[in-house]
């Protein structure tokens, strides 16, 4: 049985494949199914979007599918940008646009605490899905630092570290990140299921 990673985000794919041991499963990605349309992420929660991505890709490909929906939740902004993290600065905006907007919104805030959160959804080919999540607490700094990673990485310092996700080695981010923590849980909670595929 094949497992499809339900994303066309190359950064995410690279991280998921570096973090998770798929133990002999044949792993494909949405790039291998160019005819399957992009999933419209129109739900109001990370969980809603993760399930939608996993279910639509599983049903379209006839394979099991694993999806990740992640967001940055900033305390002083009441959890924003959250589920809207990808298009915080508007439709079709860049990572740089989002970072500029985040710095602007936080300009007069003393509380810079934030967390990244990932919800993973795993769907069978019929569209029956289950979820689990991981989070990484930290803070937002006042200027961009570092060039690794993607998205809000240059502005986020994870708790217990002095460098941003964009300054830390990928190997370190991939041990402590929201995505890593969710995948570490998946390795335990979904081990039997995945090894039976
Ligand atoms: P989605 O899960 O593809 O909807 O991701 C939403 C957005 O959250 C991305 O476009 C990034 O801006 C941000 N994001 C998700 N994961 C990360 C990460 O690991 N580092 C930095 N930004 C991230």
* Count of alpha/pi helices: 6
- CATH names the topology as Maf protein
Q: What is the H-and-E element order?
A: EHEHEHEEEHHH
Low-confidence stretches: none
Number of domains: 1
Mean pLDDT: 96
The main sheet comes to: 6 strands, mixed
CATH class: Alpha Beta
Helix/strand structural class: alpha/beta
Shape descriptor:
globular
Ends distance: 5 Å
Share of helix, binned = 25-40%
- What is the gyration radius calculated from CA atoms? 17 Å
Q: Specify the CATH architecture.
A: Alpha-Beta Complex
What spatial order of strands do you see in the largest sheet? 2-1-3-4-5-6
Portion in strands: 15-25%
Query: How many strand elements?
Result: 6
List of distinct ligands in this structure: inosinic acid
């Amino acid at each position: 049985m094949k497992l499809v990673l339900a994303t066309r985000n190359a950064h995410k794919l690279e991280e998921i494949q570096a973090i998770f041991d798929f133990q002999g499963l044949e792993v494909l990605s949405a790039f291998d199914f160019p005819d399957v349309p992009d999933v419209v992420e129109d739900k109001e929660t990370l969980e809603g979007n993760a399930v939608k991505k996993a279910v639509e890709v599983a049903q379209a490909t006839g394979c099991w599918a694993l999806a990740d929906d992640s967001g940055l939740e900033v305390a002083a902004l009441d959890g924003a940008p959250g589920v809207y993290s990808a298009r915080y600065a508007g439709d079709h905006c860049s990572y740089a646009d989002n970072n500029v907007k985040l710095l602007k919104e936080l300009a007069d805030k003393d509380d810079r605490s934030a967390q990244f959160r990932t919800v993973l959804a795993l769907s069978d080919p019929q569209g029956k899905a289950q979820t689990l999540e991981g989070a990484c607490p930290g803070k937002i700094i006042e200027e961009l630092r570092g060039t690794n990673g993607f998205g809000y990485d240059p502005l986020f310092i994870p708790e217990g570290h002095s460098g941003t996700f964009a300054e830390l080695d990928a190997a370190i981010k991939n041990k402590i990140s929201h995505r890593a923590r969710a995948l570490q849980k998946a390795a335990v909670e979904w081990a039997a299921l995945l090894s039976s595929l």
